[in-house]
Specification:
The chain is α/β, with parallel strands linked by helices and about 500 residues long. It contains 17 helices and 16 strands. It starts with a strand and ends with a helix. It binds 3-methyl-2-oxobutanoic acid and zinc ion (ZN).
Length: about 500
């Protein structure tokens, strides 16, 4: 059985999604989880694009051992040199060089002829090859490029040393049969194609990214570029979990395999959603909250009698915990630790103590503590461990007659306790204004959402806040059974991330 190489670009194309900025530690945390998931390649970023991206790629290259670490570069010397600087300490480094290929891009954007682009592609692949054996090349907007020209460029870059040639459907325009035809044509018309791996990179503008990727592997492509939860530029990229599970579930049809440990899928999906702030839609295949939920009586009856009647995959294969065991205030530390381990968290020592204390506090407020509550609680603990400013106390008064007022007390990075109060149009507005009086960083709040983690009036409320400062968006999250407290935590979390990014930029 042939193996399909899984090239994960969550940290590069995924992070390009509007509002999805991640900080250094978050990128490293995701990279660590991607390694556990078993991806073959991590595209860690676009080093020339910003000092933050460069640092993240460099750190990931140093820390992550098993997968190939890839840095993206335009076909210009400065990008390639910078990409190499960032990945040179990786055990397995790769440089990914790209240049536009379609006449639309050449005419309107690059203002270069096909000959010039072909020459640049050849030279820049050769430049990358001087640094590393492993060079990938992408002719951007390939699906809207005349196939004959694609064949020519691919032949030239393979001669110059490209070991992977990636065919992007950059604007998500292709139809599966058409895109599959392009891949088949490449195998037939590029004379040296047996010296390179053929890869595909599909965007989801027409909702066809996964279909186009699967059609391509069916026609011989052996690398797929994808992201966790399908996040990415505009409508996103092909979703890793959907591709991997389609290959696994329909092995009878495709006769292919991947090296993904599918039991890590759910945890990876939750982590990426948590850190990027992009919620997974409930009906999302594989990882959505309803993906394995049966509502209709007939379906429930069938699943009880024999799961295969309406379930084509066992939820445990993707790491969704089998039992829906519920913990409560009488549950001990041992039961809590066991549940954490089943959910894929390995906490010990002080981290476990803090998480257990937070669990006990929650169990006092809420009769039943579910897996989702525990996940939310752990995420809150992780956020708290990297805080700059910390919420100490919060008091709010509001109602239809009163003037919404908030008093806030914070602990500063150097341990001082500071407090202030403000009036607002509502309690959340008053809280944000009071916090602004204490942490004075100009910003605009662009998004505010509240969502309950579970059913029931006593549920934890998760708040997501996005703020914008100097054209950059920062996401903050907070969770508590009191949604005003969640809002304060989320706003402080967003400000903490803004401050950390500014500090790093110097
Ligand atoms: O969508 C695209 O064309 C890309 C390239 C850089 C591969 O992301
Ligand atoms: Zn892309």
């Amino acid at each position: 059985m042939d193996k399909v190489i899984i090239f994960d670009t969550t940290l590069r194309d995924g992070e390009q999604a509007a509002g999805g900025t991640l900080n250094l530690q978050e990128k490293l945390e995701i990279a660590r989880q991607l390694e556990k998931l078993g991806v073959d390649i991590i595209e860690a970023g676009f080093p020339v694009s910003s000092p933050g991206d460069f640092e993240a790629v460099r750190l990931i290259a140093k820390e992550i051992c098993t997968p190939i670490i890839c840095g993206l570069a335009r076909a210009v010397p400065q990008d390639i040199d910078r990409a190499w600087e960032a990945i040179k300490e990786a055990k397995h480094p790769r440089i990914h060089v790209f240049i536009s290929a379609s006449d639309i891009h050449l005419g309107y954007q690059l203002k270069k002829s096909r000959e010039e682009v072909l020459q640049t592609a050849r030279e820049m692949v050769a430049r990358a090859k001087n640094y590393t054996e492993d060079v990938e090349f992408s002719p951007m907007d390939a699906s809207r490029t005349e196939p004959g020209y694609i064949y020519q460029i691919l032949e030239a870059v393979i001669d110059a040393g490209a070991t992977t040639v990636n065919i992007p459907d950059t604007v998500g325009y292709a139809m599966p049969d058409e895109f599959g035809g392009l891949i088949e044509g490449i195998f037939q018309k590029v004379p040296n194609i047996n010296r390179a791996v053929v890869s595909v990179h599909c965007h989801n503008d027409l909702g066809l990214a996964v279909a186009n990727s699967l059609e391509s592997v069916w026609r011989g492509a052996r690398q797929v570029e994808c992201t966790i939860n399908g996040i990415g530029e505009r409508a996103g990229n092909a979703s890793l979990e959907e591709i991997v599970m389609a290959i696994k579930t329909r092995q009878d049809f495709l006769n292919l395999t991947t090296s993904i440990d599918t039991k890590q899928i759910y945890k990876t999906s939750r982590l990426v959603s948590e850190l990027t702030g992009f919620t997974v839609q409930p009906n999302k295949a594989i990882v959505g909250a309803n993906a394995f939920r049966h509502e209709s009586g007939i379906h429930q009856d069938g699943v009880i009698k024999m799961p295969i009647t309406y379930e084509i995959m066992d939820p445990r294969t993707v790491g969704i915990p089998a039992s829906s065991l519920v913990l409560g205030k009488l549950s001990g530390r041992h039961a809590f630790a066991e549940r954490l381990a089943e959910l894929g968290y390995s906490l010990s020592g002080e981290d476990l103590n803090r998480a257990f204390a937070a669990f006990k506090e929650l169990a006092d407020k809420k009769r039943k503590v579910t897996d989702r509550d525990i996940e939310s609680l752990i995420a809150e603990e992780l956020r708290a461990s990297s805080e700059v400013y910390h919420l100490d106390r919060l008091q709010v008064s509001c109602g239809d007659r009163g003037i919404p007022t908030a008093a806030v007390r914070l602990v500063t990075p150097d341990g001082r306790v500071i407090a202030d109060a403000a009036l607002g149009t509502g309690p959340v507005d008053a809280v944000c204004k009071a916090i602004n009086r204490l942490i004075d960083v100009p910003n605009v709040l662009t998004e505010f959402t509240v969502k309950s983690v579970t059913e029931g009036i006593d549920a934890i409320g998760e708040v997501l806040i996005r703020i914008e400062s100097e054209g950059v968006t920062y996401t903050g999250r907070g969770a508590d059974t009191d949604i005003i407290v969640s809002s304060a935590k989320a706003y402080i979390n967003a400000l903490n991330r803004l401050l950390a990014a500014k500090k790093m930029a110097g």
